[in-house]
Amino acid sequence: MSPVITVAAVVFRDGEGRMLTVRKKGTASFMLPGGKLEPGESAAQAAVREVAEELGVRLRVEDLTPLGEFEADAANEPGHVVRSTVFTWAGEVTPDAAAEIAELRWATLAEIAEGVHFAPLTREYVVPALQPA
């Protein structure tokens, strides 16, 4: 059984429906902003803290909407699985790359679904969850 990395992440969409993705320093894959939970922290609390650290965007737990919990091969840790609680946030943001973020990228859902430079969890689970039924 592969080691599991537990994280929380937030989906941000712009006025054109594109989704914000981030690439961490020293990695090749784009993924959702977010990160690992600290001891005693809920997924929503971790998402709010990580977004503030990585993007300089201040959110409130009560403004997050759960999208789901997804599990996939980790993009940057070979042999590991990432389990992410993913939230959406319905508002406009002006993010800045901070902390370990090397690059920000707004991408369409189609670009993400077809792109090899996007993390498996984002590509295979989050994009389908955002598609209309």
Automatic annotation (TrEMBL):
<dbReference type="InterPro" id="IPR020084">
    <property type="entry name" value="NUDIX_hydrolase_CS"/>
</dbReference>
<dbReference type="Pfam" id="PF00293">
    <property type="entry name" value="NUDIX"/>
</dbReference>
<dbReference type="InterPro" id="IPR000086">
    <property type="entry name" value="NUDIX_hydrolase_dom"/>
</dbReference>
<dbReference type="InterPro" id="IPR015797">
    <property type="entry name" value="NUDIX_hydrolase-like_dom_sf"/>
</dbReference>
<dbReference type="InterPro" id="IPR020476">
    <property type="entry name" value="Nudix_hydrolase"/>
</dbReference>
<comment type="similarity">
    <text>Belongs to the Nudix hydrolase family.</text>
</comment>
<dbReference type="GO" id="GO:0016787">
    <property type="term" value="F:hydrolase activity"/>
</dbReference>
<protein>
    <submittedName>
        <fullName>NUDIX domain-containing protein</fullName>
    </submittedName>
</protein>
<keyword id="KW-0378">Hydrolase</keyword>
<feature type="domain" description="Nudix hydrolase">
    <location>
        <begin position="2"/>
        <end position="131"/>
    </location>
</feature>
